[in-house]
Amino acid sequence: MKLFKLLPTRRLASGVLAALSIVLLLGGCDRGPKSGYGFTLPQGDAEAGAKTFVALECTACHSISGNKAITQPQNPQMTIALGGQVSTIQTYGKLVTSIINPSHKLAKGYPETMVAVAGRSKMRVYNDVMTVTQLADLVTFLQAQYQLKPFIPSEYAPYQ
Ligand code: HEC
User: What structural domains and CATH numbers belong to the chain?
Assistant: First the structure.
C-alpha cells in the first residue's frame, strides 16, 4: 500500500529529472554567438607570467598564497589573495575574465565595500596597456598557483 502511494511522486521526480537534464544539456554547452565556445589563448609561459605579475604591479593589491618569490603587497585595506587551496577549480576562462573584465564577477569572500565601488571592481583595468602575450603568461602563471582541495567524502554511520 505504502509503495503505491510513493509511486506517483517517484514518477514525477524522475520526469522532473529528465526534463532538467535536457535543459542542462541544451543550455549547459552554450554555443550561441556570444558564448566563449572556441576561445583559447596561445600557450603562456609561467616564468614570464611571474615577472609580468610584478612588472604590472599586480602586487600592489594581490598576494599569492604560499609563494615567497612574489613581493607581498603593502596594502592591508585591499590585499586580495590569489592562489592557494580552492574547492572549485579556477578555470582558464574565469581567470582571463577576472583580468580583462574585473567587474564581471567580483571575487568571493570579501565585503563588497572592500573590493568594489557601486558594483565596479576596484581593480585597475589593464586592457589598454597589457599585451596578449602578457595576458597568456599571467593566466598560465596564476593557474599553477591554485591547488584543488582533495575531496573528502562524508563518513556515514553504517545503515542498520
Ligand atoms: C588597484 C588594485 C588592484 C590591482 C593593481 C590588481 N588587482 Fe586584481 N583584483 C583587485 C580587486 C579589488 C579584486 C577583487 C574584486 C574583483 O574580483 O574584481 C581583484 C581580483 C582579481 C582576480 C580574481 C580573484 C578571485 O578570487 O576571483 C584576479 C585573477 C586578479 N585580480 C588578477 C590581477 C592581475 C593579474 C593583476 C595585474 C595585471 C591585478 N589583478 C591587479 C585589485 C587589483
Answer: 46-148 (1.10.760.10)
